[in-house]
Amino acid sequence: MASRKGCVLCNGERRALVKIPSTLAPSCKECFFLHLENNVYNTIVRHALFKPGDRVAIAASGGKDSTVLAHVMTTLNKRHKLGLDLFLLSIDEGITGYRDDSLETVKRNEQQYGVPLKIVSYEELYGWTMDAIVKQIGLKNNCTFCGVFRRQALDRGAAMLKVDHIVTGHNADDIAETVLMNIMRGDFARLQRCTAIQTATDETIPRSKPFKYTYEKEIVMYAYFKKLDYFSTECIYSPNAYRGYARAFLKDLESIRPSAILDIIHAGEWYQSAQQVKINVPVAGGAGCGGTCVRCGYMSSSGLCKACVLLGGLDRGRPRRAIAADAE
Amino acid sequence: MLRVRLEFSGGAELLFGGSKAVAAELPDPHAAGTTTVRELIAWTKTNLLKERPELFVQGDTVRPGILVLINDVDWELEGELEYRLQDGDTVVFISTLHGG
Ligand SMILES: [Zn+2]
Ligand SMILES: [Zn+2]
Q1: In the CATH scheme, what is the code of domain A46-278?
Q2: At the N or C end, where does chain B have fewer CB atoms within 10 A?
Q3: In the structure, how many helices (H) and strands (E) does chain A have?
């Protein structure tokens, strides 16, 4: 028969419904909500992520993380009078049956939270949908295209909204997973950057991760108990096996010792501080060198930005496709 | 026989042919008060799981990354695999392994 444990946070006043992974505290619904919200609020304050009057875009995919982030940001903005002008910013990659469905979720969020929504599409920015790109290049490098295009699309959408800041739904599990992947790939430059709560250069709008210390389990439980609806289908073009293995490994570790997730983030942060002394100067070629793309004006260290290089390859392929279509 | 309601979400439903809720009837010798969640998971795997079993089960438990709630309580507070099911219990499986 079910045990009836009391919540340790309100001294057993209410029944415990969640075991909070970071503290292992059996917690009632109300205390759990407050735990997550305070955790995010403390992260925002400790790192001075915003100032009153800031215009902030929430990168919204319709998935669990960004749906909960939109909810928590609007809640904290009201509760603590942060004075933020919030916006939802979504990218439409042009993937039928995936993004068109998840965008419906984001449109519902716009209504529920009263936060204006801006959707920018690959098609309007680049003249290509992911469906068309996959048709042309197949399923080999499509995620490279999508990654480069998305990063730039978020920046451009943020510029259209004239925001000071972008927040993304990356949670503690995501960051720990990225630390592991960067170690496994030997990618030291990314390892140093990936634990940063905020990334900013002179040319780009700062991005930050208010969920840096929030476990995925907490986000999913929060969505469940708040009955927030989110979209949860894997991208149809992205099997991403390597990340899948890193994720499975991380989850196995977490099931043995829940602190593993924060421990790995912590380990990543230490690599960063140990190395910064040695290699601060020669990071030429990275963002922040001041160049811009000759074709589209986006920041770039060489003549063409990554998106324009990729587009060059695609557009060269276009006539071939047309001929193939004629031949049918 | 044991009657429980099973719910699948967060992408877990995709492994069960898209069904988000199942009124499950576990035949004898399954019975209220003796059948555990461990046995429920084994039964679910044999009788309901439609594809890629490795995304749902690992050994005799669910794959890490799948959250389980028993009557809306985190199963980590309810004895996990050892919990003895009662008629009318609801067990929810939520995948966290699908896109964010
Ligand atoms: Zn409480
Ligand atoms: Zn360019």
Answers
A1: 3.40.50.620
A2: N
A3: 12, 8
